[in-house]
Write a structure and sequence with these properties.
The protein has helices at residues 45-48, 57-71, 76-96, 100-127, and strands spanning 3-4, 11-12. By secondary structure, the protein is mainly α.
Length: 128
């Protein structure tokens, strides 16, 4: 003959002292077992959305490449490479990062650096 728990209704063995599902004492023998409690950490937006460097990564790279490229544009090849990187990261930063100002400044500096680098190359090719 099958026995069932009077609280939750699952099938229990007659030799058991407590229901394994809900912890209710069976047949007056034994004490009830408490239901295990599990702690789960609540979801927080801060854990998923890092602040600081990561939210401005492409914009910051565009600005860094633009500034360094503008100083090194007297060496045309380096200026063109750094200016191109500033343009690429500036466009990515405008579409994905939070700070559009840094991305815009980096993009403008990158464009100017590439134009100056090409201008220097054309100048030397034309006059030499």
């Amino acid at each position: 003959m099958a026995n069932f728990c009077s609280s939750c209704g699952i099938k229990v063995d007659p030799s058991w002292n407590a229901c394994p599902e809900c912890g209710t004492a069976l047949g007056g023998r034994g004490i009830s077992q408490p239901t295990p409690q599990y702690y789960t950490q609540p979801y927080t937006q801060a854990a998923q959305q890092p602040s600081g460097w990561k939210s401005h990564k492409h914009s910051a790279l565009a600005l860094i490449f633009g500034v360094i490229g503008s100083f090194l544009c007297i060496i045309p090849i380096i200026g063109i490479i750094l200016g191109t990187l500033a343009i690429i990261f500036g466009v990515i930063g405008l579409t994905s990062d939070e700070d559009n100002v840094m991305a815009t400044i980096g993009l403008i500096l990158g464009i100017l650096t590439v134009i100056i680098g090409i201008g220097i190359i054309v100048f030397f090719l034309y006059y030499y």
